[in-house]
Amino acid sequence: MFTSTGSSGLYKAPLSKSLLLVPSALSLLTLLLPHCQKFFVYDLHAVKNDFQIWRLICGRIICLDLKDTFCSSLLIYNFRIFERRYGSRKFASFLLGSWVLSALFDLVLVEAVQYSFGIPVANSLPSGFLAPVFALFVPFYCSIPRVQVAQILGPLSITNKTLIYILGLQLFASGPYVWIVAISGLISGMCYDRKVFQVHQLLRIPGRMARFSSWALEPIFSSSEPTSEARVGMGATVDIQRQQRMEQLDRQLMLSQFAQVRRQRQQQGGMINWNRLFPPLRQRRNINYQDGPRSEPRASPPLEVSEEQVARLMEMGFSRGDALEALRASNNDLNVATNFLLQH
User: Fold this and answer.
1) Which of 18, 145, 218, 286 is the most exposed place for a label (fewest CB within 10 A)?
2) Is 149 helix (H, G, I), strand (E, B) or coil?
3) End-to-end CA distance of the chain
4) Do 165 and 260 belong to one domain?
């Protein structure tokens, strides 16, 4: 039920890997050194009254709760798809922008709740890199295709995004005041994603810093390309597992043929005719079970492609030509087409 776009592992996601390793290691270290935890408490009372601005930084990096560390790490792992799609610099800029904006929204929300409803809010909010994690739900909801995995209780269905939302709800309910951090993260994610007040231009990673980080840190946190994929849904029945294996074989066959033809295109130039080279497996006929004389092969008309799906792929940053060819090759399967374009 995890998002099935892109390959597994942390290939082409060095920033996501660093966010998984470094904060988690520091969180475990603070558990072994309890006297150091006071430096990572997200204390808004100290920020407002004692002007301890440094707590806006230290208190919003390391989680002091293991449950928050575990849930946020799982979400960062699944949101690594955005680093592959946008690139490490743009992904880091989104995290930086939402992290800075959410600090402002935290202060505003606490004051608004106390003033409007008279509800006293604790001086300390949950610590950790939580707000940018909630902010990533905005592009996740808007741009990741929804693919149904199973249907239960009539209209209710399980999709490839269900488990991610469940993890988000678990993180949302992990503490009494996490909802403040979650709302501020979602608002900051919408502001940055919708380019409100041009915040994406103001809060972004400078080019020199991105190049230096790529030179210094990427060799440390880079991962090798996975050699095999093994996606079987957790708790799936035998029929679902069999269907998933058939889909895996379908995708692996098309990916291998695409890689072979891609090398030929680099030498010859031009656009690949995906349907001519390898039509989707679902449209192929097993000639061993056909009766009667064979008819002469006729050229099938080009598959009509949904303009809405083309537009969604173009919004992800792909060209119209590549989007058209990928959708035709995948028989208008948006999820499979996204796989092709993200991995190549």
Assistant:
1) 286
2) strand
3) 23
4) no
CATH code, domain carrying 45: 1.20.1540
The total number of structural domains in the chain stands at 2
| HSE toward the beta carbon, residue 12, CA cutoff 13 A | 15
Taking Cα atoms as reference points, which of 151, 137, 115 lies closest to residue 187? 137
Tell me: do 23 and 156 sit in the same domain.
yes
Whether 339 and 196 share a structural domain = no
Q: Classify residue 290: in a domain, yes or no.
A: no
Q: Are strands 42-43 and 148-151 parallel, antiparallel or unpaired?
A: unpaired
Instruction: Give how far the C-alpha of residue 21 lies from the chain's centroid of Cα atoms, to the nearest Å.
Output: 17
Q: Are 193 and 141 in contact (CB under 8 A)?
A: no
User: Which residues, 6 or more positions from 271, have their beta carbon under 8 angstroms from its beta carbon?
Assistant: 265, 321, 325
CB 204 within 8 A of CB 93: yes
- Is the domain of 136 the same as that of 174? yes
User: What is the model's pLDDT at position 141?
Assistant: 93
- Residues 176-197: tens digit of each pLDDT: 899 999 999 999 999 999 989 8
Asked if residue 297 is part of any domain, the answer here is: no
Could you give the angle at which helices 162-172 and 178-193 cross, rounded to 10 degrees? Answer: 130
What domain range includes position 307? Answer: 238-280+303-343
- Which residue reads 């390391």 in tokens? 62
Q: Is residue 162 included in any domain, yes or no?
A: yes
Let me know whether 255 and 334 are in one domain.
yes
- Is position 294 within any domain? no
Angle formed by the axes of helices 88-117 and 14-32, nearest 10°: 50
For the purposes of burial, counting CB atoms within 10 Å of the CB of 251, is it exposed (0-12), middle (13-18) or buried (19 or more)?
buried
Q: What DSSP character marks residue 124?
A: E
Rounded CA separation 221/159 (Å):
31
Token couple for 164: 């991610």
